[in-house]
């Protein structure tokens, strides 16, 4: 069985967020325990499994995502990685769209003329909440504001500036004790007279994402988090289309376009490994 890993939301190989992807031939998934076991063996932030659908008028593929410890309801970078491989395999042409049946409903991806892939995801509903107790202990800095994200299940914390965000050294146990399994920290982009580095886009806001209770001390690039960051920063900056930088060690860029209750997430991807499983799922 073929297994590939793809760097998603990446400007070059070995940046962005690596996802493992298994495209299955059968019209169905193996046992959940085996899907989870392989995801644990690979130990990437997500492993995606997809199989074609032949009798679903609303979707072309079924898609599921697993962290090393659990199945998740939504994952942007592994969806981008899956669409990238469909394009590589000649199953997603330029200008075409593929639809995925997932635990979060039908999500789609389209292939742009410049090789960018664009995901169409539901926009998260942001509700301002008091900054939870324990944030200072978790991050050794205080947040200036906080938002609940409804069914997305993430907590958004705004920090004072990009420098503070980049220098965070979170305490995993304290982060895991906060009232959400996934914590997004974000800040406005720092003013820079020099502009972006050569070969990299500029950015309008920065973020980092932590999910130690889900086996992810820090996620390199989190597409789904940008369904909450897009309405926050588009509302703040007055523009529908922005570029977010997730300032993890690997770094990654996500182009966001806010369209009401839908958010478009754009990025590039690169296949870095093509292997054959010696055992069957």
TrEMBL record:
The keyword Membrane does not apply. It comes from the Bacteria. Transmembrane segments: none annotated. This is PhzF family phenazine biosynthesis protein. Keywords: Isomerase. Belongs to the PhzF family. Coiled coil: none annotated. InterPro entries: Phenazine_PhzF-like. PANTHER family: PHENAZINE BIOSYNTHESIS PROTEIN (PTHR13774), PHENAZINE BIOSYNTHESIS-LIKE DOMAIN-CONTAINING PROTEIN (PTHR13774:SF17). The keyword Glycoprotein does not apply. Pfam families: PhzC-PhzF. Signal peptide: none annotated.
